[in-house]
Write a structure and sequence with these properties.
The protein has about 120 residues and is of the alpha+beta class. The chain is about 20% helix and about 20% strand. It has one domain: 2-Layer Sandwich (Alpha-Beta Plaits). The protein has helices at about 15-20, 75-80, 95-110, and strands at about 1-5, 25, 30-35, 35-40, 60, 85-90. It has a two-stranded antiparallel sheet. It starts with a strand and ends in a 7-residue tail after the last helix.
Length: about 120
């Protein structure tokens, strides 16, 4: 299952720092899907995705692996002082899919090795 940041978020930014795949962004920074990949920040604020938040930090699902293969508990969940990161029941992902996503993201950032 994908993760999302709840409305309880106090915008401390600790989760963003801890995320190994840079999947967490501050409120108002609008990522857009381009050719089926989230690669670029979009200046057009009239078009947003379901995960986007203009109020608190948010997680881009295509970039989040829930830290599979890195730690047993997602790093953002471990560091959040308010327990403001929860499962997103609308975006279910199997463990196999999360590991495949990790493998793909590792090819984009070969200098990162998280074990």
């Amino acid at each position: 299952m994908a993760l999302k940041i709840s409305n309880d978020c106090m915008n401390c930014g600790v989760c963003e720092i801890e995320c190994p795949y840079n999947a967490i962004y501050p409120a108002g920074l609008n990522w857009r899907k381009i050719k089926r990949k989230y690669l670029s920040v979009c200046e057009d604020r009239s078009v947003t995705d379901d995960f986007y938040s203009g109020v608190h930090y948010y997680i881009v699902p295509d970039m989040c692996t829930e830290c599979k293969g890195i730690s047993e508990t997602p790093k953002c969940v471990m560091v959040c002082p308010l327990s403001g990161i929860e499962k997103d029941t609308k975006l279910w992902e199997s463990e196999e899919h999360l590991y495949s996503k990790k493998q793909y993201l590792d090819t984009l950032h070969p200098w990162r090795y998280w074990s």
